[in-house]
């Protein structure tokens, strides 16, 4: 079954948002991290195989900061895991879907990712993830 990797919610103040999700909804807070290269501070709540991610912009001129300024806090994107991101992007492009990234980007942990423009996704920014494959163990002396 395809996995929903995460749902990202943009907030103005991460610390102010934590009590609602952690204490009132009762979701376990897994980790909070600064991601300077993306100009955000994030918090993750794992849920049933996926995660809710809170995102607070830490500068005023990133894409997510402009999103927050324009639309206010709320749903920023959903992220769906795919098997083969390159093939998925080619298939989407062939179908006339507007992509934000026409080739996969590579994250810190090796995850390949790309975004589909909300214009082509019924108003929702959609991220696609291809998780790094778990490498086969190398057996010395074989092959
Ligand atoms: Co994401």
Automatic annotation (TrEMBL):
Keywords, A to Z, come to: Coiled coil, Lyase, Metal-binding
- SUPFAM superfamilies according to UniProt: Glyoxalase/Bleomycin resistance protein/Dihydroxybiphenyl dioxygenase
Q: Name one GO molecular function term.
A: lactoylglutathione lyase activity
Membrane-spanning intervals of the chain = none
Which class of enzymes does this protein belong to?
lyase
Q: Which NCBIfam families does its entry note?
A: metmalonyl_epim
Which PANTHER family does the UniProt entry name for this protein? METHYLMALONYL-COA EPIMERASE, METHYLMALONYL-COA EPIMERASE, MITOCHONDRIAL
List the protein's name: Lactoylglutathione lyase
Origin species, per record, is Candidatus Thermoflexus japonica
